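This follows on from our talk about sequence and fold. Can you supply me with one protein entry, sequence and fold together? Could you add the entry underneath, on a fresh line?
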Amino acid sequence: MLSFKHQLNSLSLSFSPTAMELSWEQSVTASINTIYLLFSAYLVFMMQLGFAMLCAGSVRAKNAMNIMLTNVVDAVVGSISYYLFGFAFAFGVGSDSNPFIGSHFFALKGIPDGTYDYSFFLYQWAFAIAVAGITSGSIAERTQFSAYLVFSFFLTGFVYPIVAHWVWSSSGWLSPSSSDPLFGSGAIDFAGSGVVHLVGGIAGLWGSIVEGPRVGRFDSFGKAVAMRGHNATLVVLGTFLLWFGWFGFNPGSFGKIVVPYPDTTDQGNWTAIGRTAVTTTLAGSTAGIITLFGRRLLVGHWDAMDVCNGVLGGFVAITSGCSVVEPWAAIVCGFFSAWVLIGLNMLALKLQFDDPLEAAQLHGGCGAWGLIFTGLFAKEEFVVQAYNSGETGVTRPYGVLMDGGWGLIGAQMVELLAIVGWVSVTMGPLFYGLHKLRLLRISVDDEITGLDISSHGGHAYTAHAEENHPAHPRFYADYVRIQDQS
């Protein structure tokens, strides 16, 4: 198939039947690519349902309604924030472009243009709202609802888009598509182990640190008290929904499916997309198996919820290098991501760090490992396919363990440190400010009662065993009466 540029040049030369045929081919190609991108956006958006189910099952029943509502808020608030500011900060490239932040396309003014259209915005929006969902899990069961509104708007509209600009905009200082990439390579974070997951994980880390553990999570001797989620069914359902959505998250990040590679008759983006789906599956599956047996050795039983988190940890880790590594390397990625998650969870208990969804450990820790893994195992042929459409004669730095030099691993480490630093200096002060203004954490009484009854007027379920306890009012009127009596 002729390249897009050659097609446009041919069309401008004449209106011959041949040119018209080329124009038709171009239109069909563009239509197929748009359909592919939109379908991928729908898959990524469906991950919000997966997050909602996973979060609901991972908290106690008395907070189920609250956590599901926060997932809805992340989507609706994030939509407005990303529309007004976020997309412009991330992809607003113009004559005055700079490596740090975008400056065009506020409220989508000027879209569509020659580079971006509405389908691209929708796909990037689905990524943006996922970041806030990650952070919400870290501070679940003890946070005022108004705080969710504030941090979700700020994270989606400013903090995350800046990082996206660094890595995914052609003018970003970490971008592998830059005219002068860092260390001659730029950072390869194909679908966002760092841009999405590490950002959300570090934000959740600071929220959890500022808020402190849930009431009763650690006893007076510092020993952890189990506060397991109330519904393993929802956790498993959410995990499979996220797994399905990840096929839009990772393979969908190619953006276009009908892009043939030069000097081949049967390879193009469709080949790389299939391989990316395979590496994604293998990494998550390997991490799930290792977590299954690893936790069996540590706790003495087969734990469904831990396995689900292990699977998700594998997906998070492979997200950076999913398009540039061999399938066997994805198994290596999943193996180590499982131990990263297990190790960080053990460390969290020792430090009395409380994250009900293990989001900081899972998305932050496994996201960081994913960036490093890409710098170790990226294959040059696949890097050229992903970032140069398989163009012949192009050379790029690739994985250091694949004899690709130190340029890529150096850029990966810089991205990791830059994200940790940026999110820390933005979200840390935000959470601390909300804390000092008494807008972050709910009262002890409300926390013990449960957010569903104290903030949302009733439980998510009826006649749950937890509700029958005398200390837990079943209805909002009961809660108000108890508050008046005290």
In short: Residues 1-22 have pLDDT under 50 and may be disordered. Residues 206 and 434 are 12 Å apart (CA to CA). The chain has 16 helices and no strands. The radius of gyration is 23 Å.
